[in-house]
Amino acid sequence: GPAASGAAPAATSSRAVEEADVYRLAGSTLHVLNGLRGLQEIDLADLARPALRGRVPVVGQPVDLYLRGATALFLVGDTLGWAWVAADGVARPTSGSQLLAVDVTSPAAPLVKARLDLDGFVEQSRLVGDVLYVVSRRTAFYDLVPATGGGAGTGVASSPIVAGPGDVALTSFDVSDPAAPRLVARLDVPAAGWSTHVAVTADRIVLAQSGWDAQGPRSTFQAIDISSPSGALAAGATFTAPGLVPDRWALDVDAASGTFRAVLARGWAAGADVRVWRAATPAEATPLGAVPVDVAETLTAARFDGPRAYVVTAAQVDPLFVVDLADPANPGLLGQVSMPGRLDFVEPRGDRLVALGHEPTAAGPWQLAVSLFDVSAPSKPLRLSGVTFGGGSGWVSAQPDDLRKAFQVLDAEGLVLVPFQGWDATSWSWQGGVQLIDFTHDALALRGFLAHPGDVKRAFPLGPPGQLGALSDQRLQVVDATDRDRPAERSSLELARAVWAIGFAGGAAVELCGDWWRGDTSLVVADPADPDGPSPLARLATTAPASQLFTAGAMAWLLSRDVTTGQGWIEGFDLTTPASPVRRGRVAVEAALGLYGPWGGWGYGDQAVFTGRVLALHRTFGWGWVGPAAGPATGAGPVASTPPDEVLLYDLADPDAPALAARVTLPTSGWSWGLTASGPYLWITHFEWEPDSGTATASLGRYYVDRIDATDPAHPVLLPKVNVAGVFLSADASGARLATLEPTWDGQAATSFLHVLELTDRGTARLVGSVALPGYPGGAAVTPGWAYLTTWSWTGTASSQRLAAVDLAAVRLASDQPLEADWAWPLRAGDGWLLLSAARGGGQGLLAWRLDDPGAPRLGSFTRTQGWVQDAVLFGGKAYLPAGPYGVQVVEP
Prior knowledge:
- By secondary structure, this protein is mostly beta strands.
- Helix content is 0%, strand content 56%.
- The strands form 18 sheets. A five-stranded antiparallel sheet has the order 1-12-13-14-15, with no helix packed on it. Strands 32, 33, 34, 35 and 36 form a five-stranded antiparallel sheet that branches.
C-alpha cells in the first residue's frame, strides 16, 4: 500500500470519533448488520408490521456497520476463497477481509458500490471525520497468501492491498465520498501479543497488544498520529509496560492533562496497576506515575472518567477502587468499596456509577447483577442499590469492547436495558431476552422482562415513547414497554432461521428448521427460488427436538428422537399443495438403548436410509466386543455379545399408516457400520473378531458385507454374509460388483486401498483389482463407474490433503492432485459436478469441481460458506447447502 506519511504531528483536530455497531436506525429504516445474513434493510414505518425490504448477503464474518447519508459502510472479516491456478494445476486458497460500500437509497434494492480488500482479519475500526481507520491482523493460524482482489469479476470497484512485512496493520480510507471509499495509507506494526485494543481520539490512535514474554505478562503500545484529515498516518512513540490490557475501557488518552493512562492486569489473581505517561503529542510517551492495586485478585473491569479511574478486581468479594489521577505525576488510591460477586463493566454518570456484573445468589452462582454506586465522596464510595436477574447464570452477548453498546443506560428515560442470555437450572432450559431496570439518582428497581427467541444482542428505543427494539441475528422484536412491569411483544420479524436439513417435495423446498434447545423446531415449506426468504409458503410446528428429513414425490418424512428419553417416531407430511401441507401418519420407533443409554441414537450416527418406500433404520445396542475375555494368554473363549444388531424396516407406502414391517437381525459382530442403499440391496459392513486361540492373533478380525433384499419390506431377505477386504463403499446396479475401502498403517505411513470385487455364486468375493492411495480416507463420492476420494496424511507438524479420481471399470487411478486445505471431504457427485467441502484456517467453503473429463476433476468455482456445510442437495441444476443457523446457500456450480 502507499507509504505512511512522515508529516509532523498536527494540532488536535475537532473531527468527531464515531464507533460502529451492528445496527443503525435512520428515520423509519433500520439497517442491520446480521452476523448470519449480512446487511438487512428493515422498514419500521408501521411498528405493528415491520418488513424486511432488502438484503446484501455476505460470506465471512460481518462486523462494524457505519451509515454515511444514504451509504452503508461495513467490514467483513475472514473472506476465504479458492481459485484455480492453471500454471500449477492446483486450486489455491486466498484470505483476507473486505470493506463494502452499499447504496441504501432504496432499501428494497441495496446496491453494492464498492468492495475493497484488506489483508488480514479485522480487529478494530473507527470513523474519524471523513476517514475510516481499520486495524487488521494476519495470523499464522491462517498462513495463506494475501487476498487477490475480492472485487474481481463482481462488477464493482476493487482496490487490493499488497501484504506488508508486519503482522498487524492500521489502514486508512477516505470516505468523504462514502460510495467510493479510497485507500489512503497503511502502517505496519510488528506483532507483540495475541490481544489487540485501541484508544482513539481525533488526533491519535494508541494500539495496545498484550501477551507474555520471558518476564511474564507485557503490553506493547504503538501511538499513531492520525491528525491529518486526509488520512495520512505517522508512527509515534512505541513503549511497553508489564501487565495485560483487558479491554479498550482500560485505555485512555486524556487531552486535558496531556497524558495517556492504562490499567494493566498482572495476571490471574495477582492484582493490577494504573499507569500514567506524559503524552502531549503522539510522539511522546514519558512515564509519570503508577498506582499499584495489590490484591490477590483478578482485574475484571476498568474505566476512566476525567481525573479518576475506577478499577475492579474480584475473587469471592469484589472491591471497586477509586484512583485519583488529578496530578498525573502523583496518582493515588482515594477509596474502595467491597460487595459480593464481580463487576464486568462500569458506566460513569458524574457522581454515580452504573455497573454490570455477576453475583452469587440463592438462584445460582453466576446471576446477572446491575449495581448503582455513589462516588460523590471518592474516599468513601458506596453501593447504593443492586438488582439481580436472569436465572442461575447469565451473560450479555457482546465482546468486552462492545459492552457499552449492549448495556444501554438511557438517562432521559431513567431506564437501563440489559439484553442477555441465561440458563435456568430450575426448568432446565435456556432463557434470554431484555430486562428493564429503572434507575434514579439514588436507586435501581427491577421492572419487567420480555423473552426473545434468539441470541439477543441489542435493545434500543425506537422513537415513540415506550417503544423499544430487541435485536438478535435471528429476529427483530418491537416491544411495547409503556408499562415497564409488563413489556409486551407488539410485533416481530424473522431475520434468520436455522435450517438443519433441506429436501424437495411437491416442487417445493422443505426445511427442517429451528432451535431444539428452545423447543421451537418446525417444518418450513419455501419457494426453491428463495429458500432462505423471510416469508415462506408454510410453516408447521413440530415436536421434533432432533430429526432427520427424507422426501419422495409429494411426501416429506421426519425421523425424530427425544434425546432425553430415547423415544423416537416417524411422521409424514403431504405437500401436494405446498402452501397447505397436511400431516399424515405417524408411527413410534422403539427406544435405542445403545452405547450411550437413552441419550444415544440408532447406530453410531443415526444411520437411516430411505428408498422411497422403505425407511431402514440401523439399530445397535453397543460396541459388542467379542474378543478375548481376559487377554490372549488365558485361552478363554470370546465374551458373549450384547443383543445383536438389527436393521428395522418401516413401510411408508401408505402415508396414513406407516408401520414397522420387519426387523432383520445381523450376524453377531464386533461392530457394524455404514447402512447404505446401492443397487438392488441395502448394504452394511460388520466386523468379526477372530476366536481366541491363546495367541497374539486374537486381536485380528475380518470384515463382512451384509445384503438385505427389502423389495418386499414385510418379508426381507438377508443374503449370506461375504468376507471382503475393508468396508463397503458402493455397488453397481446389478449388486454383483462392489467397491470397498481399507485403510492400513505399516508403522511408517498410512495407505488407503480402494478394492473392486465381484461376488461369486459360492458366497465369496473375487478381487478384481486395487488402487493404493497415500494417507487415510477423508471421504468419498461415487458416480456410475467413478469414485472420488479425499485422503489426508500427517507429517508431524501439519496435515496434507489429496483428491483422487478412480476408474472403477478399469480399476485404475486416473488422477491424483494436492488440495491446499486443512480438511476436505466430498459431499455429492452428480450432474457433471463433484461438490467438495473444504476448510482452511477458520474458514470453509464449497469447491465445485467440473467432471467434463471424469478422470481429471478441475475446479470450476468456489463458494465461501458460513458454518460447516454437512450436506449438498442437488435440485434443478443447483446445489442447496443447509448450514444450520446460517440458513441455506444456493450454488449454481
